[in-house]
Amino acid sequence: MAQESTLPSALPDNVPARWSPDASNSNHIAEVTKHLDNVLPALESLRSQSGRLSEWGTELAKRLLSGQRLLAAGNGGSAAEAQHLTAELVGRFDEERAPFSAISLHAESSAVTALSNDYGFEEVFARQVRAHGRAGDVLILLSTSGRSPNLLKAVRAAKERGISTWSLTGAGPNPLADASDQAITVDAIAANAQEGHLIAIHAVCRAFDAEVARRAGSALKSFGGRQP
Fold first, then answer.
1. What is the mean pLDDT of each run of 10 residues along the chain (228 residues)?
2. What global pTM score does this model have?
3. 104 bridge partner residues
4. Phi, psi at residue 136, to the nearest 5°?
5. Which of 109, 97, 184, 186 is nearest to 140 (CA)?
6. Which residues of 83-94 are buried (b: 16+ CB within 10 A; e: fewer)?
7. Residue 86: closest CA among 67, 97, 98, 70
8. Are 125 and 105 in contact (CB under 8 A)?
Protein backbone atom coordinates (compact mmCIF):
# COMPACT_ATOMS: atom_id res chain seq x y z
CA MET A 1 0.00 0.00 0.00
CA ALA A 2 1.33 3.44 -0.94
CA GLN A 3 2.17 5.67 1.96
CA GLU A 4 0.41 9.00 2.31
CA SER A 5 2.51 11.92 1.21
CA THR A 6 3.76 14.40 3.78
CA LEU A 7 4.68 18.03 3.43
CA PRO A 8 8.40 18.60 2.90
CA SER A 9 10.31 20.03 5.83
CA ALA A 10 12.14 22.44 3.55
CA LEU A 11 11.82 23.86 0.08
CA PRO A 12 13.15 21.57 -2.68
CA ASP A 13 16.46 22.42 -4.27
CA ASN A 14 14.87 23.05 -7.68
CA VAL A 15 12.68 25.99 -6.63
CA PRO A 16 13.41 28.71 -9.23
CA ALA A 17 15.57 31.59 -8.06
CA ARG A 18 12.82 34.03 -9.05
CA TRP A 19 10.52 32.44 -6.49
CA SER A 20 11.91 32.82 -2.98
CA PRO A 21 9.05 33.31 -0.50
CA ASP A 22 9.40 35.53 2.53
CA ALA A 23 8.71 33.24 5.50
CA SER A 24 8.22 36.21 7.81
CA ASN A 25 5.30 37.60 5.79
CA SER A 26 1.92 36.00 6.60
CA ASN A 27 -0.21 37.63 3.90
CA HIS A 28 1.91 36.47 0.92
CA ILE A 29 1.01 39.47 -1.21
CA ALA A 30 4.59 39.68 -2.44
CA GLU A 31 4.48 36.05 -3.61
CA VAL A 32 1.21 36.60 -5.48
CA THR A 33 2.52 39.80 -7.08
CA LYS A 34 5.75 38.09 -8.11
CA HIS A 35 3.79 35.25 -9.66
CA LEU A 36 1.69 37.69 -11.67
CA ASP A 37 4.77 39.65 -12.70
CA ASN A 38 6.31 36.42 -13.98
CA VAL A 39 3.42 36.03 -16.42
CA LEU A 40 4.83 38.96 -18.39
CA PRO A 41 7.97 37.15 -19.65
CA ALA A 42 5.75 34.30 -20.84
CA LEU A 43 3.49 36.71 -22.71
CA GLU A 44 6.40 38.54 -24.30
CA SER A 45 7.95 35.24 -25.32
CA LEU A 46 4.70 34.26 -27.07
CA ARG A 47 4.33 37.69 -28.67
CA SER A 48 7.74 37.23 -30.29
CA GLN A 49 6.47 33.97 -31.81
CA SER A 50 3.06 35.25 -32.92
CA GLY A 51 3.89 34.44 -36.53
CA ARG A 52 4.36 30.77 -35.74
CA LEU A 53 1.17 30.67 -33.65
CA SER A 54 -0.70 32.06 -36.64
CA GLU A 55 0.95 29.54 -38.96
CA TRP A 56 -0.04 26.66 -36.69
CA GLY A 57 -3.68 27.71 -36.58
CA THR A 58 -3.83 28.26 -40.33
CA GLU A 59 -2.09 25.00 -41.21
CA LEU A 60 -4.17 23.05 -38.70
CA ALA A 61 -7.36 24.39 -40.28
CA LYS A 62 -6.13 23.41 -43.73
CA ARG A 63 -5.35 19.86 -42.63
CA LEU A 64 -8.45 19.23 -40.55
CA LEU A 65 -10.68 20.61 -43.30
CA SER A 66 -9.01 18.06 -45.60
CA GLY A 67 -9.92 15.20 -43.27
CA GLN A 68 -6.70 14.91 -41.28
CA ARG A 69 -6.67 14.61 -37.51
CA LEU A 70 -5.03 16.28 -34.52
CA LEU A 71 -3.51 14.13 -31.80
CA ALA A 72 -2.42 15.80 -28.55
CA ALA A 73 -0.74 14.68 -25.35
CA GLY A 74 0.90 15.93 -22.19
CA ASN A 75 1.52 14.93 -18.58
CA GLY A 76 -0.15 16.42 -15.52
CA GLY A 77 -1.09 20.05 -16.03
CA SER A 78 0.11 19.84 -19.63
CA ALA A 79 -2.37 17.01 -20.18
CA ALA A 80 -5.14 19.34 -19.07
CA GLU A 81 -3.91 22.02 -21.47
CA ALA A 82 -3.77 19.55 -24.37
CA GLN A 83 -7.29 18.41 -23.60
CA HIS A 84 -8.40 22.04 -23.55
CA LEU A 85 -7.16 22.36 -27.13
CA THR A 86 -8.91 19.26 -28.40
CA ALA A 87 -12.15 20.32 -26.70
CA GLU A 88 -12.01 23.68 -28.50
CA LEU A 89 -11.71 21.89 -31.86
CA VAL A 90 -14.31 19.18 -31.32
CA GLY A 91 -16.62 21.74 -29.77
CA ARG A 92 -16.11 25.37 -30.67
CA PHE A 93 -13.93 28.30 -29.72
CA ASP A 94 -16.00 31.48 -30.16
CA GLU A 95 -18.40 31.19 -33.08
CA GLU A 96 -20.48 28.24 -34.20
CA ARG A 97 -18.73 26.00 -36.74
CA ALA A 98 -18.33 22.37 -37.75
CA PRO A 99 -16.60 19.96 -35.34
CA PHE A 100 -13.13 18.70 -36.17
CA SER A 101 -11.30 15.49 -35.28
CA ALA A 102 -8.96 16.02 -32.31
CA ILE A 103 -8.00 13.36 -29.75
CA SER A 104 -6.23 13.77 -26.41
CA LEU A 105 -4.25 10.57 -26.03
CA HIS A 106 -3.90 10.82 -22.26
CA ALA A 107 -7.71 11.01 -21.87
CA GLU A 108 -8.09 7.40 -23.04
CA SER A 109 -8.00 6.12 -19.47
CA SER A 110 -8.38 2.39 -20.15
CA ALA A 111 -5.79 2.52 -22.93
CA VAL A 112 -3.41 4.58 -20.80
CA THR A 113 -3.58 2.17 -17.86
CA ALA A 114 -3.39 -0.94 -20.04
CA LEU A 115 -0.45 0.34 -22.06
CA SER A 116 1.36 1.53 -18.94
CA ASN A 117 0.87 -1.86 -17.35
CA ASP A 118 1.87 -3.89 -20.42
CA TYR A 119 4.53 -1.73 -22.07
CA GLY A 120 5.62 0.82 -19.47
CA PHE A 121 4.63 4.47 -19.11
CA GLU A 122 7.25 5.63 -21.61
CA GLU A 123 5.31 3.87 -24.40
CA VAL A 124 1.85 5.08 -23.43
CA PHE A 125 1.61 7.76 -26.16
CA ALA A 126 3.85 6.23 -28.81
CA ARG A 127 1.67 3.15 -29.17
CA GLN A 128 -1.48 5.28 -29.47
CA VAL A 129 0.21 7.40 -32.13
CA ARG A 130 0.93 4.25 -34.11
CA ALA A 131 -2.69 3.15 -33.70
CA HIS A 132 -4.51 6.40 -34.49
CA GLY A 133 -2.09 8.49 -36.53
CA ARG A 134 -2.01 8.69 -40.31
CA ALA A 135 0.37 10.47 -42.66
CA GLY A 136 -0.51 14.17 -42.78
CA ASP A 137 -1.98 14.27 -39.27
CA VAL A 138 -0.56 16.63 -36.63
CA LEU A 139 0.70 15.62 -33.19
CA ILE A 140 0.91 18.44 -30.64
CA LEU A 141 2.85 17.72 -27.44
CA LEU A 142 2.89 19.97 -24.38
CA SER A 143 5.59 19.95 -21.71
CA THR A 144 7.01 22.67 -19.50
CA SER A 145 10.29 20.76 -19.10
CA GLY A 146 10.53 19.45 -22.64
CA ARG A 147 12.13 16.28 -21.26
CA SER A 148 9.29 13.78 -20.74
CA PRO A 149 10.40 10.38 -22.12
CA ASN A 150 6.87 9.37 -23.16
CA LEU A 151 6.52 12.50 -25.27
CA LEU A 152 9.93 12.03 -26.88
CA LYS A 153 8.97 8.48 -27.84
CA ALA A 154 5.68 9.78 -29.25
CA VAL A 155 7.65 12.13 -31.52
CA ARG A 156 9.67 9.23 -32.86
CA ALA A 157 6.53 7.16 -33.46
CA ALA A 158 4.91 10.08 -35.29
CA LYS A 159 7.88 10.49 -37.60
CA GLU A 160 7.65 6.79 -38.49
CA ARG A 161 4.09 7.47 -39.68
CA GLY A 162 4.69 10.74 -41.54
CA ILE A 163 2.85 12.75 -38.87
CA SER A 164 3.89 16.36 -38.29
CA THR A 165 5.12 17.03 -34.75
CA TRP A 166 4.64 20.37 -33.02
CA SER A 167 5.66 20.97 -29.43
CA LEU A 168 4.74 23.65 -26.93
CA THR A 169 7.32 23.73 -24.15
CA GLY A 170 8.90 25.84 -21.46
CA ALA A 171 12.22 27.56 -22.00
CA GLY A 172 14.45 26.21 -24.74
CA PRO A 173 16.54 24.63 -25.89
CA ASN A 174 15.18 21.32 -24.67
CA PRO A 175 15.02 17.76 -26.08
CA LEU A 176 11.34 17.84 -27.08
CA ALA A 177 11.62 21.13 -28.95
CA ASP A 178 14.75 19.87 -30.70
CA ALA A 179 13.11 16.56 -31.70
CA SER A 180 9.90 18.12 -33.04
CA ASP A 181 9.36 19.46 -36.54
CA GLN A 182 8.33 22.81 -35.04
CA ALA A 183 8.29 24.18 -31.51
CA ILE A 184 7.13 27.18 -29.56
CA THR A 185 9.17 27.66 -26.38
CA VAL A 186 7.90 29.87 -23.57
CA ASP A 187 10.72 31.61 -21.74
CA ALA A 188 9.37 31.56 -18.18
CA ILE A 189 9.47 29.44 -15.04
CA ALA A 190 7.35 26.28 -15.20
CA ALA A 191 4.09 27.54 -13.68
CA ASN A 192 4.06 30.67 -15.80
CA ALA A 193 5.12 28.78 -18.91
CA GLN A 194 2.11 26.52 -18.42
CA GLU A 195 -0.15 29.56 -18.15
CA GLY A 196 1.45 30.79 -21.34
CA HIS A 197 0.51 27.51 -23.01
CA LEU A 198 -3.17 28.27 -22.53
CA ILE A 199 -2.70 31.67 -24.14
CA ALA A 200 -0.86 29.97 -27.01
CA ILE A 201 -3.67 27.45 -27.43
CA HIS A 202 -6.27 30.19 -27.64
CA ALA A 203 -4.12 32.12 -30.12
CA VAL A 204 -3.88 29.03 -32.33
CA CYS A 205 -7.65 28.56 -32.07
CA ARG A 206 -8.16 32.20 -33.07
CA ALA A 207 -6.13 31.70 -36.25
CA PHE A 208 -7.78 28.31 -36.83
CA ASP A 209 -11.29 29.75 -36.72
CA ALA A 210 -10.28 32.68 -38.91
CA GLU A 211 -8.94 30.34 -41.59
CA VAL A 212 -12.01 28.09 -41.42
CA ALA A 213 -14.24 31.15 -41.85
CA ARG A 214 -12.10 32.48 -44.70
CA ARG A 215 -12.29 29.20 -46.59
CA ALA A 216 -16.02 28.92 -45.99
CA GLY A 217 -16.46 32.45 -47.38
CA SER A 218 -14.36 31.65 -50.42
CA ALA A 219 -16.38 28.51 -51.10
CA LEU A 220 -19.63 30.46 -50.80
CA LYS A 221 -18.42 33.09 -53.28
CA SER A 222 -17.50 30.41 -55.79
CA PHE A 223 -21.13 29.24 -55.73
CA GLY A 224 -22.46 32.75 -56.34
CA GLY A 225 -23.51 33.26 -52.74
CA ARG A 226 -25.47 29.98 -52.64
CA GLN A 227 -24.67 27.12 -50.30
CA PRO A 228 -22.68 24.43 -52.19
1. 38 49 76 92 96 98 98 98 98 94 97 98 98 98 98 98 98 97 96 97 98 84 53
2. 0.85
3. 72
4. 95, -15
5. 184
6. bbbbebbeeebe
7. 70
8. yes
